[in-house]
Structures are given as C-alpha cells and as structure tokens.
Design a protein that fits this description.
Blueprint (H helix, E strand, L loop, with lengths): L10 H11 L3 H5 L2 E8 L5 E3 L1 H15 L4 E13 L2 E11 L13 E12 L2 E11 L6 E4 L5 E4 L4
Parallel strand pairs: 1-6
Antiparallel strand pairs: 1-2, 3-4, 4-5, 5-6, 7-8
Length: about 150
C-alpha cells in the first residue's frame, strides 16, 4: 500500500498524476476523505472514497490502461489555514481505443480539488474534472439527442 501523503494542498494533483501513471486506484483514493465526492468529465458522480477507488480501478483497467497523465499547471487558493482550492490542468495521452476511434487523441482537462487539512497532511473533500474543448464555449443537445460542443461566436 502506498503511504505518500499530500504535505501541501498542491501535492494532491501531483500525487494524483503519480498514482494514475502507476495505475494505482487505491493510492488515488487515499488522497480523498472517506466521505469525499468526485464528479468526472461526463457528470458521473461518485460518493465516498471506496466508490472513487472502484470507479478509478475500472477506468485504469479498461478505459485508461495504457494512458499517461501529465500535470501542466497548478493554481492554489487558500481559503483558511485548513481549507484550500486547487485547480490543476492535465494532459491525458494513450486512452484505450473504442468503437471506430482506434487512435484516441490527447485530451486536456482541468480539475478542481477542494482540500482540507487533516492533522499533518491534506486530503481532498471533493473533485470535479472538466474536459477542455478548444475553440468551443458550451455544449448543446440537438433534437435527436446528439450532444456536441459549440461556439456561438461563429
């Protein structure tokens, strides 16, 4: 079992990347409080550390089994001595092929981590992952139910 801890709030995304690249869902889950919340890029909402671990275990075995995650930017906002928000930008490569997409391209995303100090380290209370869609402003669902990213400026 991994025993690395976040000494500072901004260590959470750094360790998230390290554990992701090791394909260690239990270590990822160890960054979260027992009653933490996690919302992924498509709005799946996982409650509790154990469910966050289960979801990441599945993802790392099936969807992201040959992927690599890279941290490209971190910004911390301290709200009090014991509470901080950390925004982190990531680059994801090597997603598992699916259907007609035999070579998934790189994805970029931004995480928001809400962190709290627990004794001598920091844990994540809640995380939200959002894909970055270059050149788009928002999403829309058409009359057929098709979901797509759009830009109203064009």
């Amino acid at each position: 079992m991994n025993n690395k801890r976040a000494e500072e709030p901004e260590d959470i995304p750094k360790l998230f990347v390290e554990f992701w690249n090791q394909k260690d869902a239990a270590a990822i889950a160890s960054l979260f409080k027992e009653d933490a919340e996690f919302v992924n890029v498509v709005g799946l909402w996982w409650h509790t550390r154990i469910n966050i671990e289960k979801a990441h275990k599945y993802g790392l075995e099936v969807i992201f089994n040959v992927s690599s995650l890279k941290l490209t930017r971190v910004k911390k906002r301290v709200l009090s001595d014991n509470i901080a928000i950390v925004h982190a930008k990531f680059r994801l490569t090597g997603q598992t092929p699916v259907g007609e997409t035999q070579q998934p391209q790189d994805r970029y995303n931004i995480f928001t981590f809400v962190c709290s100090r627990v004794a001598d380290h920091w844990l994540c209370e809640a995380a939200h992952n959002t894909d970055i869609v270059p050149g788009k402003e928002t999403n829309v669902i058409d009359a057929t139910g098709k979901f797509k990213s759009v830009d109203y400026r064009k």
